[in-house]
Design brief:
single chain, 398 residues, alpha/beta, UDP-N-acetylmuramoyl-L-alanine:D-glutamate ligase, Protein-Tyrosine Phosphatase, Chain A, 2 domains, eight-stranded mixed β-sheet, seven-stranded mixed β-sheet, 15 strands, globular
Length: 398
Amino acid sequence: MSAAAILLATTGLLAAGGLVESLSHRRRLTQIPTRVHVNGTRGKSSVARLIAAGMRAGQVRTCCKTTGTLPRMILPDGTEYPVFRPARANVIEQLRIVEATVEAGAEALVIECMALIPYLQWLCENRIVRATHAVITNAREDHLDVMGPTEVDVAKALAGMIPINGKLFTAERDHLGVFEKVCDERGTKLIPITEEDVAKITPLDLVNFPYVEHAENVALALRVCDDLGIERGVALQGMWNAKPDPGAMTAHEMDFFGRRINFVNGFAANDPESTERIWNMALERYADVERRIAVFNCRVDRPDRSHQLGRIIADWAPADYYVLIGSGTYIFGKAATDAGLDPLKLVMAENRRTEEIFETIIELSGRSSLAMGMANIGGVGLDVVRYFANRSTQTVFK
């Protein structure tokens, strides 16, 4: 047989194999009648977990897959397993999640969108998930190198995962017009979460979470659960009892040889708006401390995020020190000083080990301090959170 004939035969076999796999995947999807696809700039993992917890509490056998701080597969009994990745993250892993959901006998799947590139967002929805319920938490300035250059472009990119003939729930308000246009084109019902919906989430509703949860996230998750026929009180109870994402905002308070140190994990908030909001929340809670230390975990592969935060940090409520950890810290430092931040307040701790970062924060703390981690949970960020959590006298922030 000639080389050309062998190549032609091999190509034909691969095409046939791909068609068979595609048909098998479509059959699996029909065995999962409720498919909730969650996307957005901030809060995807939290909202996915909240929706799944509410559905489980409503006696719906639900699997959930998040790609937040640590990728996790959550089974119908609430058990969590890490998602195995032999190489880098790839959207094809969503096929395995659908297969695992069918094997678990689940009737619903809540799955976080893991794509950033606009055409991949469309591919994930139209070819892999085919959601009955889509969720876009919000559209803010993040990953501008992929979805930008503006916030409107981010909204347009996220709109790629809006399903055909489904439902879209969103807490986004500034770019509803973008979503409305796409929904009209695809025959999908747009269900926005209003300020009135958020106002119905009371302080009593939020205080029962063992971490900081945002009213917008809870309102959004409850609206999806309501559409699925789950009573509000039942869904809320399930959400309160659910395990949070490892990147959820918590505070770890400790007494270190007479020094009172309060470390707030805000690493998972990575766009400027969300980050400033939680910085102000932390300042309000710990208003009586002697020192305020902002810890920014930089990543050399996320230069846009470092530049974004650096150029606006001088306009925020001030810290006494700005500790830069991780990699590529010079990008943040240059942007911050160019914007008017006092360079003497910058503490460069690039590529330091976790224990060295801890010692740096201790040295800067005085008798009492607030230290808050921001920008990126990946890399050394999660290690720093665990280091403080393991040494704290209590974990709070209700």
